[in-house]
Amino acid sequence: MANPAHRSRRGRQAEAERNDRRVLDAAREVFAAQGSTATVSAIAERAGVGMGSLYRRYGSKADLLRQLCTQAMQQSIDAAEAGLAVDDPWAGLAGYVRTCVAHATGALAPLAGSIETTPQMWEASRRGRWLLEQLVIRAQRDRTLRPDVTALDIAWLIESFGRQGPASPGTEDYVIRQRLLAIALDGLRAPGTEPLPGPPPSPRHYEHRWAWSGPAG
Fold it and tell me: Do 107 and 195 belong together in one domain?
């Protein structure tokens, strides 16, 4: 029989984990809708937790933002690794895009420049981009992805869906988003009817947005 004190500790840990998930989910929704000006009190209210609980887990708003960004990047990495494990290159790439859109990994793009990034965040970001490039290379070698599409084109596409904010399954907004995603994926398929306008996005431009411009609050 388990020790009552051990059960109590496990219960407290489980409750803390549930609260943490609620805070992170609420924070992603609030920041996606309001940007870096969103308040911690709005996040706590959305999550249904007290301010004290939130600050015990995250010492500052900037810490919470960094955790959100790190979580989103890890979800992208996991999605890319899962995509590379799929034998069919197009299915692997399309699955990656759908997973990232479902997780709204691009929803935090409006936070760019509002927090001081860490070396660990840059490492995760570049790891995720490298994996995405492998998905792109595979699909282009298979001639299922149009040859003028780059990994950063796809990264920006995912961000554009994330900026729309959350949409609950079964709602009209969710159905519309799925239709638009299907249209976007179809536009990525080879051979493409017209050349893409302008040069592809540059890594410098993609990363420069995240240069810290001051405290997040």
Answer: yes
